[in-house]
Design goal:
By secondary structure, this protein is α+β, with helices and mostly antiparallel strands. Helix content is 24%, strand content 30%. The protein is built from 3 helices and 12 strands.
């Protein structure tokens, strides 16, 4: 009987056993590397996103027809200070069917206006007027910023540079804020703004993407 080379036999067995182990180890290494890359990427996203501010806001819209009674005021009742450049304000007004027993010619139509603090307060980003040649004004949703309609209790500032600190407020001309003309009796019959109507106001903190105010506001006398 021919003798088998035991050394050669065991060497071949060793090689067959090592190959699967190496393969498994390589797979584990690749898995660990992928997990580390994904974890680092996710950690980077979390670290760069900004948390939503903790703040209590109040919004008031006046139905008055002259002077200081024509304004919209946003007040920081308490909490964090807000950079207005980080805010996007969306107002939505639906024309009622009738006011004071007068039918409204644009009943049921919606005016939607966004004031965006990230926009430069230049003429190109200003509110269009009903005298401008703009198709379907004011029913086309508007996104604007304006340099002459925002003030605080301490200083005149543009929206986008003012800081809304606790106890302070920013003030807007009502027509600018709502996005359509609100002065004169003819606008009552056109848009139905006579007082006690609702305007829906949403305020978004842009860096976090969180909504920090979202309510129906009564246009009150």
């Amino acid at each position: 009987m021919k003798k088998r080379n035991r050394k050669a036999y065991f060497s071949a067995c060793d090689e067959d056993a090592v190959s699967p182990v190496v393969g498994v180890m390589l797979m584990l290494v690749v898995t660990i590397i992928i997990a580390a890359v994904v974890s680092g990427f996710a950690g980077g996203i979390v670290s760069t996103s900004q948390a939503a501010p903790s703040v209590s806001l109040d919004v008031s819209v006046s139905a008055g027809s002259s002077g200081a009674s024509k304004y919209v005021v946003i007040e920081n009742l308490g909490g964090d200070s807000l950079n207005t450049k980080d805010l996007r304000i969306i107002s939505s007004f639906t024309c009622p069917d009738a006011v004071m027993k007068t039918s409204v010619s644009n009943a049921g139509k919606v005016v939607k206006h966004t004031i965006d603090g990230t926009l430069d307060p230049v003429e190109a980003n200003d509110l269009v007027t009903d005298t401008a040649i703009v198709p379907d004004y004011p029913w086309t949703p508007q996104t604007t910023n304006n340099d002459d309609i925002v003030s605080t209790r301490t200083a005149d500032r543009t929206f986008g540079t003012a800081v809304l600190s606790p106890g302070s407020s920013v003030q807007f001309d009502r027509s600018y804020f709502l996005g359509f003309p609100t002065d004169g009796n003819n606008y009552i019959s056109e848009y139905g703004l006579a007082g006690n109507e609702n305007a829906h106001v949403t305020i978004i903190h842009i860096p976090s993407g969180e909504t920090i105010y979202d309510k129906d506001v009564v246009i009150a006398w």
